[in-house]
Amino acid sequence: MLRILPVRTAVGSGEDYFAHEQRDVWNFDQDPSQDPGTPYYRVEGRCGIPAPEKDDLVYEFIAPLQVLDDLNPERVGSFEQLLAEGEEPTAVAVGVLDIKCYYDSPSAHWALTHYLLDGHHKVEAAARTGRPLTLLTFITSEHGISSPESIDRLLEAYGSAPIFARA
User: How many domains does the chain have?
Assistant: First the structure.
């Protein structure tokens, strides 16, 4: 369970990781295959921060599984009101940690992406109001480019207890 502040990010904007940080740090031209093709959310305070490994950086994203422009405005508004009243609704996601490094780069990027299963209206309301919400995320240890130990080290850096048993 994470307490987060999502920031909506438009593809190609100054805040778009794929258009700027990834390309700039790894020194390569924009590859169209890296374009997410849809707006997504960055997690405030968890992008471009030091990772558990020397010189590596952490980036944390929320990937919506619905078209954001198709969200119901009244529903988003009702969550904006709840947030304004101090409530912190909870969204649900599946997380994947990918640790990637371009071939000649001295540093890797630890990209923790939360694929939003439920709570699209809640996350959009939090992004619009600048108020945090909670995210219950189930982080897979089998489908990312990482190991259970890497996930534990990242969560420990966030101040959370390890979740995988170590031999």
Answer: 1
